[in-house]
Amino acid sequence: MLGPQVWSSVRQGLSRSLSGNVGVWASGEGKKVDIAGIYPPVTTPFTATAEVDYGKLEENLHKLGTFPFRGAVGGVCALANVLGAQVCQLERLCCTGQWEDAQKLQHRLIEPNAARIIAVFKPKNEEPYGHLNPKWTKWLQKQCCPCCFGRDCLVLNQGYLSEAGASLVDQKLELNIVPRTKVVYLASETFNYSAIDRVKSRGKRLALEKVPKVGQRFNRIGLPPKVGSFQLFVEGYKDADYWLRRFEAEPLPENTNRQLLLQFERLVVLDYIIRNTDRGNDNWLIKYDCPMDSSSSRDTDWVVVKEPVIKVAAIDNGLAFPLKHPDSWRAYPFYWAWLPQAKVPFSQEIKDLILPKISDPNFVKDLEEDLYELFKKDPGFDRGQFHKQIAVMRGQILNLTQALKDNKSPLHLVQMPPVIVETARSHQRSSSESYTQSFQSRKPFFSWW
Q1: Measuring CA to CA, which residue among 94, 90, 79 is closest to residue 35?
Q2: Residue 96 has what DSSP assignment?
Q3: With contact defined as beta carbons under 8 Å apart, do 371 and 365 qualify?
Q4: Which residues form a coiled coil (predicted)?
Q5: Crossing angle, helix 254-274 and helix 383-405, to 10 degrees?
Q6: Do the beta carbons of residue 166 and residue 317 sit within 8 Å?
Q7: pTM (global) more than 0.85
Q8: CA 328, CA 306: separation in Å to the nearest integer?
Q9: How many CB atoms lie within 10 A of CB 99?
Q10: DSSP strands (E only) in 220-377
């Protein structure tokens, strides 16, 4: 078996080989960034064993200990999440010393993934409210109109946590419409760094080249990694607005339309629970795979007809989890509420999937605790603000539960009065928590109903 130092060099060698070919798209500028920064040095000893199931890296982190890379929260390799079994096979070959086979597989792994987009990375300090946002219009708006900058119902500069939180809620509810999103640390020349950081990086590199003994004492060579959301890129999807317009002109078959409705309901459930304040028909996606008849199939007597497959992906969840319902200027409505699908009552399928979960106080409590573990990682985390965010989410869950039980439609759901469910303060100790429910009477200036 190989020691941790050799294992680290294999990992970093693979990272360097892939970094020039496999791309991670950065938010805002849309540039392909270097992913070599995913792999820091080994921090704990690791020896591979035959018992480790490499095909299920995420499910077996407890067997692997602290892995020598930062690809996602929990230490999961971002590349392994995407390239999966091939990377795992390469690891096995390296561990068993089959270097020739490993080298051949590495070449086969790199070539087909040339210029492939694997994820979208949104750095925290380059968000619209971040101090390193590259768009000068945002800077000008912040300087000239600070009172109109941002959304007062949201916690500023936590969009990356909102993205990861939406993915967490999606997984807990088993909706499977949000591309897997984690909080990661990445460094790249294409990111927007301050002049001081760039000068320090160049100085360290120069010191390492000229005076290696001095340069080796630095904890980090290169630009500092940035924290942000890392969302896997989904292929074959287009804006929902494109497909919805096409479906109006070319109506879908009944079974396919049923698939679309079921997927749409999952989007409604997600957006409503996290109270997404930025959901238009241009930032959720639809994938429509319609099998085409081939010339060879026409010549045969028997043809197997495949039904079209339609799926929905909910992206751009960075403006969710508000600390209060919108009550200032804008209402931030759900634009899907004007679609024909929103007028259809919730199906039995979505009720069977969602109701048992959100009706269970223990499930809701576990969801709150998972969100707390995620949100508290932010340096500016405020417990009071988090409790307000959870109070809004509890109210949304309460309304959704009632709407599902009353056989309402998504349109009726969004017309229900906004509710806040806060933890009741009590001077007496109790094994169970009590809650107080309140309705928000103040409406935004530009209301949508």
Answers
A1: 79
A2: T
A3: no
A4: none
A5: 140
A6: yes
A7: no
A8: 50
A9: 11
A10: 226-232, 238-239, 284-289, 309-314
Angle, alpha carbons 195-200-205 (nearest 5°):
130
Could you tell me where the beta strands, DSSP code E, fall in 221-339? 226-232, 238-239, 284-289, 309-314
CA dihedral 116, 118, 123, 124 (to 10 degrees): 160
Burial of 217 (0-12, 13-18, 19+ CB in 10 A): exposed
Residue type at 193 in one-letter notation: Y
Q: How far apart are CA 195 and CA 203, in angstroms?
A: 12
Q: Are the beta carbons of 43 and 49 closer than 8 angstroms?
A: no
The helix/strand/coil state of 438 is: strand
Sign of CA dihedral 389, 391, 392, 393: positive
pLDDT one-digit tens code per residue, 89-106: 655 665 565 656 666 665
Place of tokens 């020039």: 20
| CB neighbourhood size of 209 (10 A) | 9
Please report, rounded to a whole number, the percentage of residues in the chain having pLDDT higher than 90: 40
Residue type, 123: P
Residue linked to tokens 């795979």:
289
Q: Rg of the chain over CA atoms, in angstroms?
A: 25
| Cα–Cα distances in angstroms (integers) from residue 71 to residues 77, 80, 193, 256, 447, in the given order | 4, 9, 21, 37, 42
Distance in angstroms (rounded) separating the CA atoms of residues 110 and 97: 20
Could you tell me if 186 and 230 are in contact, meaning their C-beta atoms sit under 8 angstroms apart? yes
- Burial degree of 136 (CB within 10 A; 0-12, 13-18, 19+): exposed
Q: Please give the single-letter amino acid code of residue 367.
A: L
Spatial strand order of the sheet with 309-314 comes to: 238-239, 284-289, 309-314
Q: What angle do CA 412, 331, 317 make, to 5 degrees?
A: 85
Task: State pLDDT tens for residues 282-340.
Answer: 899 999 987 665 444 455 555 556 788 899 999 999 999 999 988 777 778 899 999 99
pLDDT at 206: 85
Give exposure, 172-196, as e/b (b: 16+ Cβ within 10 Å): bbebebbbbbbbbbbbbeebbbeee
Q: Are 282 and 240 in contact, with CB atoms under 8 Å apart?
A: yes
pLDDT digits (tens, 9 = 90+) for 37-89: 333 322 222 233 333 333 443 343 333 222 323 333 222 344 444 445 555 56
Residue 135 in tokens: 């768009």
> How far apart are alpha carbons 282 and 424 in whole angstroms?
40
Q: Which residue has the tokens 């197997």?
A: 304
Backbone angles phi and psi of 289, in degrees to 5: -100, 105
How long is the chain?
Answer: 449
Return the structure tokens found at 115. Answer: 């210029």
